[in-house]
Design a protein that fits this description.
Radius of gyration: 36 Å
Distance between the termini: 98 Å
Largest sheet: 4 strands, mixed
Strand content: 5-15%
Number of helices: 7
Helix content: 55-70%
Structural class: alpha+beta
Number of strands: 4
Order of helices and strands: EHEHEEHHHHH
């Protein structure tokens, strides 16, 4: 499998040049085998690239701009797709390649496998817990029917009398604070008069 990067070696656009350099530089730095296919100097390359970019990936004018990336005949994406894959550390799957051992993408796939196994284990234990919870709820309902105190409600909210007492205490504290401020103002006024 050979990655093909379609570029324009004699592009007048600095934005296109920078994008091409970023893709090529990344592939070189990560030792990913690829071929640069020049569309500026080779009409066959230009024609092949334009024909093989899927319709939904073509811009409104219908002419895709470089860089365009393929794995043999399979379209991988344009620069924006490449950049997103790079940021998400899924560049090897974007290119249709197996990630080398020790890369973040390999770690992600290992983690994903571990998570799916853990999820299966959790779903088994959740089934067991839900059976136990159902039994506990049924037992609690039986107690409530016998006139047992409602323990669940007492844990969540304080009794009404206690709640009112807290509100009264807060109001009393505010009144004392206001009185203290009033007394201080009176003392200041008396000192100013003297």
């Amino acid at each position: 499998m050979v990655i093909k990067v379609f570029v324009a070696t004699s592009s007048g656009s600095t934005a296109i040049k920078k994008k091409q350099q970023e893709v090529v530089g990344f592939l070189e730095a990560n030792k990913i085998d690829f071929q640069q296919m020049d569309i500026a100097g080779d009409e066959d390359n230009r024609k092949w690239m334009r024909e093989n970019v899927p319709g939904e990936k073509k811009p409104q004018n219908g002419i895709p701009l470089p860089p365009q990336i393929f794995n043999e005949e399979r379209y991988c994406g344009d620069f924006e797709s490449f950049f997103s894959a790079k940021e998400e550390n899924i560049i090897y799957s974007f290119l249709g390649l197996a990630p080398p051992p020790g890369t973040k993408e390999t770690e992600k796939s290992d983690t994903t496998e571990e998570k799916s196994e853990a999820t299966e284990d959790k779903s088994d234990s959740k089934d067991e817990k839900s059976d136990a919870t159902s039994e506990t709820e049924a037992h609690t309902e039986d107690k409530e029917g016998e006139g047992a105190p409602e323990e669940a409600q007492s844990d969540q909210t304080p009794p009404e009398g206690q709640q009112e007492g807290e509100e009264e205490h807060a109001a009393t504290g505010e009144e004392e604070e206001k009185q203290g401020e009033g007394e201080e103002k009176e003392e200041v006024e008396e000192q100013e008069e003297s």
